[in-house]
Amino acid sequence: MHSSKHFVIITLLILLSLATAIARTASEWRSRTIYQLLTDRFAQSPGQKNPQLCANNGNEYEIRRYCGGTFTGVIDKLDYIKDMGFDAIWISPVVKQFEKETKYGPGWHGYWAQDIYEINSHFGTANELKQLVQEAHARNIWVMVDVVANHMGPQEGTTPYTAEYLKAYTPFNKTEHFHDFCVIEHWGNDYEVEHCSLGGYDLPLPDLNTENPQVVDIFSNWISDLVREYNFDGIRIDTVKHVRREFWSEFTAAAGVFSIGEMFHDDPYTVGNYQNYMDSVLGYPLFEKIIPVFTNPFSDMGSVSRAVQSMRGAFKDVTVLGNFIDNHDQPRFLSRTQDRNLLKNALTFVLLTDGIPIIYQGTEQGFNGGNDPWNREALWPSNYSQSSDLYQFIATINKFRQTLPSSYFTSLSIEAWANDRIYAFFKDRALVVMTIYGTYDPMFSIKVKTNGLYSVGTTLVNILNCTEKVTVDSYGEVGVRITGDPRIFYPSQEVKGLCQIDKRRMNRKVDRQINIFKFA
Ligand SMILES: *[C@@H]1O[C@H](CO)[C@@H](O)[C@H](O)[C@H]1NC(C)=O
Ligand SMILES: *[C@@H]1O[C@H](CO)[C@@H](O)[C@H](O)[C@H]1NC(C)=O
Ligand SMILES: *[C@@H]1O[C@H](CO)[C@@H](O)[C@H](O)[C@H]1NC(C)=O
């Protein structure tokens, strides 16, 4: 009797302590908007700044090495992220890397682990990382940590996979923890992709034997402890296609929070299959289709429409996929075109279409680096300007997104218009119109049928400037002027907390100098 009473009390205590660390699920993440940052490149600690480091993005030696960003630096700049309307961050991997350099520099990016139990001291201490998560939570910003289970870091100049070589890793230091040495040469061969090394003969990344039950156990315990110790809200999983699928079921179950994997492939069905093994994946197939369109005024918006449709058939749930226009592995959008109007249309698409938007650090400052390493610029040379046009643009849409009801995030978009230059959709109560005219104004309007979504006479306001309005006519249509700018219409009576300064201005006739595009 006595001991069973104890058992009940202990169980209750355990349940209580679990309840304080709330595990965030896919459906909770659906309405979030994510800012992707690389800890080394986002912000240096206040008081210890070396702003010259990596300030010149033409210096290849510097950009392949540690630039001095820290967890404390991230804390210092959380308000910069919050003011841009983001309520989640994805941070680069936090575990210890080899200090020894390779021909590509050391593992400042975090994808080359030496010891998965230690925190990378270049970024700060374990306590500072915990503090970062706490400070983020205090601002209602959730934190997603990037993790790697496919491989460990490379050691240049040592014969790969010898016992001596493998001894250097923690906790994987035995031959049986790794696959036999081979290098991926045939990318269409699944066995090679899952068992051989990334990085080529040049710099092979020792490939973990994720079929070995001991490796599986170590990883399950590790991810479970990591998430709980630091109170992370989600995990982003690296190199998903290089590990057998069933491994991920166990790994993500042990994590117990939202998981989103990097499955780098352009075929929706190939990628969609992985949503059976984790909550979500990055929307690579959509990315591959939309980028050639949004970066080129002479392409075809119809292909965006077809891509949206083809994603729906291939995924269990497209409303939790991670949508993006670039990241640390892809050339930045503005390296493909300099036209910021095109960028704004692409941003409008990823911020409002079905799925979870992910915006890579530096987009808001108009960064235009090309392939790795040039797309991994330090952010400090921008001075973290909050008045830049793109910063304001992203903030406006993010803040609008946060006022939307949950039905927005669970419903699928409905096509309103698609031709070579224009793509428009309804989603819940919004009408979003994008074009690829860029800086060119074609000077015409279209009549969009609203299919009974709004009653006749309803006024819709473009939340991007709070002044442009259209009214549903007696045919149930709205006339939309077409330019190179995107437009986001919402019933003006239903807009919450937005366009308030505009309304006050009408009521009180306040000074005309007030920036009417800003939110209250
Ligand atoms: C491997 O690591 C374990 C602890 O994780 C240690 O006890 C053991 O001695 C190590 N083996 C080698 C060969 O270094
Ligand atoms: C940032 O500030 C420095 C020092 O005031 C200045 O030289 C630099 O031009 C600024 N950078 C930008 C992008 O405004
Ligand atoms: C509102 O935004 C649209 C699209 O950018 C633009 O064409 C229009 O001129 C703006 N209206 C006002 C009053 O600024």
Summarize this structure briefly.
By secondary structure, the chain is α/β, with parallel strands linked by helices.
Task: Summarize the SSE layout with pairings.
Layout: H1 2-20, H2 26-29, E1 34-37, H3 39-42, H4 60-63, H5 71-76, H6 78-83, E2 88-91, E3 95-97, E4 113-119, H7 126-138, E5 142-147, H8 163-166, H9 190-195, H10 213-230, E6 234-237, H11 245-255, E7 258-261, H12 268-272, E8 280-281, H13 284-294, H14 302-314, E9 322-323, H15 333-336, H16 340-352, E10 356-360, H17 389-403, H18 406-410, E11 414-418, E12 422-427, E13 430-435, E14 444-449, E15 459-462, E16 469-471, E17 477-482, E18 487-491, H19 500-508
Parallel strand pairs: 1-2, 1-10, 2-5, 5-6, 6-7, 7-8, 9-10
Antiparallel strand pairs: 3-4, 11-12, 12-13, 13-18, 14-17, 15-16, 15-18
The chain binds 2-acetamido-2-deoxy-beta-D-glucopyranose (3 copies).
Binding site for substrate: 112, 151, 236, 329, 376
Signal peptide: 1-21
EC number: 3.2.1.1
